[in-house]
# Entry
Amino acid sequence: MTASPSVFCTIVPPHLLDRLSRAADPVIAAAARRTLVADAANRTARRLTTVVGAAPVPVAADAPADKPKRTVYDAGHKTALPGKKVRGEGEKPTKDATVNRAYAGLGATFELFRDAYGRDSIDGSGLPLDATVHYDRDYNNAFWNGDQMVFGDGDGKIFLDFTIAVDVIGHELAHGVTQYTANLAYFGQPGALNESMSDVFGSLVKQKALGQTAEQADWLIGAGLLAPEVQGVALRSMKAPGTAYDDDILGKDPQPAKMEDYVHTGSDNGGVHINSGIPNHAFYLFAKELGGHAWEKAGKVWYDVLTGGRLAVDAQFADFSKLTVAATRERFGAGGAEDDAVVKAWSTVGLPTE
# Structure
């Protein structure tokens, strides 16, 4: 299976790094500028790969279809990818906790899509899952480049090791699922839907790995990434968008929870990491209302829409809300608890359902 052209996706948005690059602390500012430079180079490389085509990834003929095929590499604080291989599928844990967390996170993501949705890896056809750790120095990000995962170690002052949060791993790999399915454009509302899909499935990866119900989950994206001195709990909150952090250096979480507070901006690709709070919150409300494990009902509806072929690359929020209502009724029937819950969720955030 061949993916459609993809974008370069990072967990920490450019607008946040841009703010950090102007911090009074020269160490924080330098790390942010270094990260912005690296991200710009990778974004350009991704565009070139899209034009000339990526090299095909070989899949072992004897590899079982229901098992992940993971390889973790170490960049040695350089930027050449993928780096030195340090752990392959089925091999014992190493002495490096970062390597082991990356390996486990790749597996947890594979297991969510396999067990909950019957999907064989990111592309649905057993795509090997590769990850590189210890990328660059003081690199404040993690990303999916269309072919593999890459993790920085953070600067230690604002961000910690990006393998700490399993939902970040799930988030970035979910960009790959979107790349191979609806391939939502990465600007404005379709871009915010792209980001929201990754937050939704990233959160579900964490919830499934921890065996949590919708009630038990924290619904935070990137919990554990912020250094102890930072006033915040995560990068984003699906339960309460706009409350993840409020810090003198980072600023205040700008995410809205409702359409009436939609942010019109030219930065962040038209606010893709900002306005994703609106569909994020709708999913949280839907899952919370249903109760139980969120990946079992709410997650299946979102997956149905992402992979069903009716979600246009330039879909707006209203298009998506209507498709999820239709998918809910197709899967669970009209007029039931699931139908009521999804209509209520979208109505609460100010989006149509018919």
